[in-house]
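Researcher: Here's the sequence for the chain we discussed earlier.
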Amino acid sequence: MKKRVFSGVQPSGALTLGNYLGAIRNFVTLQHEADCFFCVVDLHALTVPQDPVALKENIKNTARLFVAAGIDPEISTIFVQSHVPAHSELSWLLECHTYIGELRRMTQFKDKARKQEVVTTGLMTYPVLMAADILLYNADLVPVGEDQKQHLEITRDLALRINNRFNEEVFKVPEPYIPPRSQGGRIMSLTDPAEKMSKSAPNPKSYIALLDPPDVIKKKIMSAVTDSEAVIRYDEEAKPAVSNLMVIYSLCSGQSIEAITAQYEGCGYGQFKKDLVDQVVETLRPIQEKVQELSAPGAIESILEAGAAKARTAAAPHLQRFQDKLGLR
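Model: Thanks. This is the structure I predict for it:
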């Protein structure tokens, strides 16, 4: 039996190069090794106010980028979270088994709450909905970034808590799948290597969006921070900004970090950055072309409709089993 993988991406509108190199590229590989469910988690996006018209289009754009990046809807299940009501149903049942203290300790909740004028209940219970997403499909592996690892721990705790309550395996306890940084596990900001590359960053020069045109990509890379020592050398602690650019170069070109170091020995940052621009532009060109094809009326909608039907079928028995245990059926 193949292992099952679940992962979700919020519909931010424009996924970044970090999303692609750090997550979606791994999804493409995993789909040939496991039974994969990839979800546009639109309900998670509602923890902050959304423009309904923009959200609807962002959901479709995120799904288009999934497919354009190489996730095959004939192999993987691609769907939208809100199209499968079982996510919301299981989330409530899990909330009744989650402790307030656990949610208050979440680092992301504390960080985001400090930035909000009004803190909603949804922001606090975000990790429980994430747990529902994962447990609903009996996932073995969950590709997550380091920033989501704490949320996966709540998922594991809930599965164990419920299994112990009923003295049997009601839910499978999932394991994290976190590739090392050198394989794209964490692509950092172009303006601040201490921060993860993110579309929500206030400075647009800090990230490369997958749909950025070549001239924009060039401006962002050429202005990316480096350091005063104009030496191309990988050292995450001493040279975090340059190391981040080298990881991006390696993942886009297929060359090893060692080969890149040797290639640019004695060169300054200028030539390295110019070549990096070419590597990134060529990596994103086929994705951008495929997105245009998927923008035809009905193209992505038909894929999402079929994916939701498969997801509802896969989710139903796991929700019903838990309902039975709780005396609801």
